[in-house]
């Protein structure tokens, strides 16, 4: 028996004018909201001693070192020594549609326009709040584990790299992706359901890089469906049951199951360079199973949810036993790896290769770089040398055959461009070992890591461990491919920043952690070099928040384009208001809700909220005009089975008003559409 707690808190942040984090496309700036982003926290505590394990999965692109350090600082001031770097795992779901700007390393500033305090604060505060809620709700309970296969939800997006792995190894697996989902079910001692964590390897990139609405993508939709089912009669974001769909070894795994096609000609571009005869690499895009990206997100999310639901219902294998956690900070740019008795190799200072700039079939790069580049280009090399400096011969040699585009480990202005100090961490809950990895392991890398950790536990008398990989934890270090995949230098390999032996180094390090847990010698592990916390203010190219203005003879919240009087299910009710910058709301109230859909109840002559801005079928669009003016359009995509009756849509905002000089205030306002009827006919 354990003490268990689960908590969920909003971590959405500003939904306008902030670049979205994931595709590294500076034009992909947020301008509205499809679904809210949440941090979901789970605490398992030992009834006998003070040991605890915290697992957090947040609807963000990845956990940055900055986020982690600030969260740990807040936890220390609140809880003393209870929640620490060794027993708190922070994992990102890897949605590519969340606000960026929460990094302290310079490389990530380029596409997210610097360090954006409101964005960083929303994530840090949301994570801490979710842990607070879980902490306050602790009760005696039991854990159950189950596993099963998810079909029709992934493809390998670098199959030619995967084929570089030895045939003898590939022959042991039926697929070039990991189709297994592992779920952990939490119930209290009275049998009341508390929550679920699912680990499954798929990129949340069903929403592509043309999207401007903040959302949690396919895995977020799975969480939404599970929580809506368990928290009956509640609006999204409400209710005590928490369902997290966490990331795993998703490095080379895409949800865009139709595969890559040339956007212009429609022919397949499933080739080693992912390039098209006309238009090159920029034309090669993978398509999801749906009619558009919203539909693909729904289909993949639903697949994942349905499998989790089935595994949850049938889960009967109980997780029992002691809790332990092991953590080290490691300088990943300088690890010596013993491959065998005679051979020692080393990791490298971080660097990104040419194919990093090519992007992937899920989101192509800007300048027609192609994947699989093992040669540099004198033109780009020349520009790089002028702007950023030439890589040293040592770094060039260390990364071979990767042609270096950015030698980030040798770039230190205004701060280092990439981390050297990286977290490695394992938390064991009885027979379950959660391996928290700082990036995106490919399918085969993940298999090798899991196997090595399991073998290590076995050899020290802890047999039968269930090993899961939790992805995008603690600090972001891009990708981790196998040594063989690295040779092909596609996007994932070019983004394996510590060189060809990165995976071997991690395997050595995680084996060390597993051994310490199995032999009960965690206290003897050296902590390692502490990561730096750079003194960065609000350093950003995001425009300052100006005063909002309404057009002449109008006021904020006035309707500009009215709803129709009547709709049927599957139609879209749409209304446009005189709007204000959503950032004026976000910087005011963390959990501000921008919209409601309300149904009229005749008997009580009152309006009842049936949807909010976290609902899947509502969309909130913000359109910026000139001189501080803007419009807001709210859509409700009326689902089949909606109860007939009279409805209205409300918009809730804040406008920023200048008082004097530097002082300004945010003033709340609202707008309401006319009533409209939903009919069955």
Spatial separation of the terminal alpha carbons: 54 Å
SS-based structural class?
alpha+beta
Radius of gyration: 25 Å
Give the fraction of residues assigned to helices. Answer: 10-25%
**Largest β-sheet summary:** 9 strands, mixed
Count of extended strands: 38
Percentage of residues in strands? 25-35%
Low-confidence stretches: none
Total DSSP helices:
14
Short description:
This protein has 681 residues and is an alpha+beta fold. 22% of the residues lie in helices and 31% in strands.
Sum up the structure in keywords.
nine-stranded mixed beta sheet; metal-binding; seven-stranded antiparallel beta sheet; globular; alpha+beta; single chain; Immunoglobulin-like; 22% helix; metal ion binding; 681 residues; 38 strands; 14 helices
């Amino acid at each position: 028996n354990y003490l268990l707690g689960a908590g969920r808190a909003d971590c959405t942040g500003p939904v306008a004018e902030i670049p979205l984090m994931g595709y590294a496309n500076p034009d992909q700036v947020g301008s509205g909201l499809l679904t809210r982003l949440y941090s979901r926290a789970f605490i398992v505590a030992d009834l006998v001693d003070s040991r605890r394990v915290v697992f957090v999965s947040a609807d963000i692109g990845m956990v940055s070192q900055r986020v982690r350090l600030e969260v740990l600082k807040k936890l220390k001031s609140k809880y003393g020594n209870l929640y620490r770097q060794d027993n708190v795992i922070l994992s990102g779901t890897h949605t590519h549609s969340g606000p960026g700007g929460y990094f302290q390393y310079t490389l990530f500033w380029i596409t997210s326009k610097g360090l954006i305090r409101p964005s960083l604060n929303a994530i840090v505060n949301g994570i801490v709040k979710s842990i607070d809620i879980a902490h306050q709700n602790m009760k005696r309970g039991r854990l159950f584990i189950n596993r099963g296969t998810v079909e029709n939800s992934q493809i390998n997006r670098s199959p030619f790299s995967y084929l570089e792995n030895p045939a003898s190894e590939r022959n042991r697996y039926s697929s070039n992706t990991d189709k297994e989902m592992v779920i952990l079910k939490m119930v209290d001692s009275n049998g009341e359901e508390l929550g679920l964590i699912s680990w499954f390897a798929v990129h949340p990139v069903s929403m592509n890089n043309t999207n401007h609405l903040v959302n949690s993508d396919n895995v977020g939709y799975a969480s939404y469906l599970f929580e809506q089912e368990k928290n009956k009669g509640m609006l999204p974001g409400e209710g005590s049951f928490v369902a997290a769909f966490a990331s795993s070894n998703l490095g080379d795994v895409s949800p865009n199951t139709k595969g890559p096609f040339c956007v212009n000609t429609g022919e397949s571009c499933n080739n080693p360079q992912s390039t098209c005869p006309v238009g090159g690499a920029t034309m090669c895009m993978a398509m999801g199973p749906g009619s558009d990206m919203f539909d693909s997100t729904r289909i993949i999310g639903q697949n994942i949810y349905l499998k989790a639901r089935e595994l949850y219902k049938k889960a009967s294998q109980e997780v029992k036993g002691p809790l332990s956690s092991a953590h080290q900070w490691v300088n990943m740019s300088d690890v010596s790896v013993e491959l065998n008795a005679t051979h020692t190799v080393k990791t490298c200072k971080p660097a990104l290769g040419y194919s990093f700039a090519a992007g992937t079939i899920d989101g192509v790069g800007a300048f027609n770089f192609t994947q699989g580049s093992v040669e540099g280009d004198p033109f780009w090399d020349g520009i790089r040398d002028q702007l950023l400096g030439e890589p040293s011969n040592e770094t060039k040699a260390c990364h071979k055959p990767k042609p270096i585009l950015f030698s980030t480990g040798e770039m230190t202005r205004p701060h280092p461009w990439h981390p050297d100090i990286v977290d490695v961490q394992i938390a064991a809950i009885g027979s379950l070992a959660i391996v928290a990895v700082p990036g995106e392991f490919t399918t085969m890398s993940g298999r090798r890591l899991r196997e090595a950790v399991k073998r290590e536990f076995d050899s020290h008398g802890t047999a039968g461990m269930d090993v899961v990989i939790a992805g995008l934890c603690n600090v972001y270090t891009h990708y981790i491919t196998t040594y063989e995949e690295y040779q092909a230098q596609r996007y994932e390999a070019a983004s394996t920043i510590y060189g060809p032996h990165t995976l071997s180094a991690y395997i050595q390090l995680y084996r060390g952690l597993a051994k310490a847990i199995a032999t009960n010698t965690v206290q003897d592990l050296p902590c390692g070099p502490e990561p730096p916390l750079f003194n960065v203010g609000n350093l950003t190219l995001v425009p300052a928040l100006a005063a909002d203005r309404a057009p002449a003879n109008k006021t904020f919240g006035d309707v500009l384009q009215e709803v129709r009087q009547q709709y049927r299910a599957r139609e879209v009710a749409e209304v446009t208001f005189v709007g204000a910058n959503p950032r004026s709301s976000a910087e005011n109230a963390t959990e501000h809700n921008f919209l409601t859909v309300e149904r009229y109840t005749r008997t009580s002559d009152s309006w009842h909220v049936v949807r909010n801005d976290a609902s899947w079928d509502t969309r909130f669009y913000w359109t910026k005009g000139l001189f501080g003016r803007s419009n807001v359009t709210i859509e409700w995509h009326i689902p089949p089975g909606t109860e007939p009756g009279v409805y209205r849509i409300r918009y809730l905002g804040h406008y920023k008003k200048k008082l004097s000089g530097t002082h300004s205030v945010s003033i709340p306002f609202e707008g309401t559409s006319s009533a409209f009827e939903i009919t069955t006919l």
